[in-house]
Amino acid sequence: MKKNNKPIPVVVILGPTGVGKTSLLIDNLYDIAEIISADAYQVYKGLDIGTAKPSLSEQKKLKHHLIDILFPDEQYTVGNFVQLADDCAKEIAARGKIPIVAGGTAYYLRHFIYGLPETPTASPTVRERVKRFIEEHGAQLAWEKLFDIDRQAAEKIGKNDVYRISRALEVIEQTGKKLSSFGVCGERRSQYSFYVLGLMRPREELYQRINLRVDNMFVSGLAEEVEALAREGYTADSPALKAIGYREFFINKGAPLDFIKEEIKKNTRHFAKRQLTFFKRFGDVRWYHPENISVVSDIKDFAEHALTTYLS
Predict the structure, then answer these.
(1) What is the CATH number of domain 8-116+184-311?
(2) Which residue, 133, 168, 294, 300, is the most exposed by fewest CB within 10 angstroms?
(3) Do the annotations mark residue 17 as ligand-binding?
(4) pTM
(5) 19 in a labelled binding site
(6) Cβ within 8 Å of residue 96, ≥6 positions away
(7) Is 6 flagged in the annotation as binding?
(8) Residue 22 is assigned to a ligand binding site
(9) 18 among the known binding-site residues?
């Protein structure tokens, strides 16, 4: 088969958690698209309810990639995501479908569009020194240390994200430079023909949806899902269980479920607010309310014309 060197058409959908990305895609684009999940935690097996993972029937209706590919104690990085998403996009387009990269992990989406910064690899000595510091002092103090040195980088990293905190400190130790000084390229990657759109709701409407979704998670058995993961030996230190919706059970062990539920709602709302702030940094984004019928027709128009050009 002749190699296709044309830019791969790809749709990227930005949007905060709870805005309605999944239902929009499954209900309207099942016949022309396949989804590449840009979610940092739907990759993990056993984390179904708390990550709002598409059900098996929904995945059967609209094929999803990068879901249920890792165990909860395995690390998943932005580099892993970009490499796997690149492979998926090429395969999907070759089948005559439009790849749609969608999810709430803004850090992953940004690096998929603009590429990974070329940060240096840390030496084994530096890596061990940073690892030992975090083991002795904890992630919170490590994050505070990073904040004192490189506030710009720290503000983009969750206080429980041990991998990214470690990586930032390793770069500082190795080079004497801040991680934020190794910026993402300002140009979109040329291997793709991008159609980037965002989904947005008024803040109060979004927060109401988030609160209702968390209520439904508890009705669906979120507490039992966490208990099952704990019985399998996964702990608060497992990379997967640092996700909102899971870590609250470990931080507040023994607390009433109603208290844990409210903590998850609060943390999810705060996360959505941070997502919206981050998404504002993306240039040339078409923004829609998810119930605006033109969003579906616009995606279909792009897919039809871009795939025809790509496959011709």
Answers:
(1) 3.40.50.300
(2) 294
(3) yes
(4) 0.83
(5) yes
(6) 307, 311
(7) no
(8) yes
(9) yes
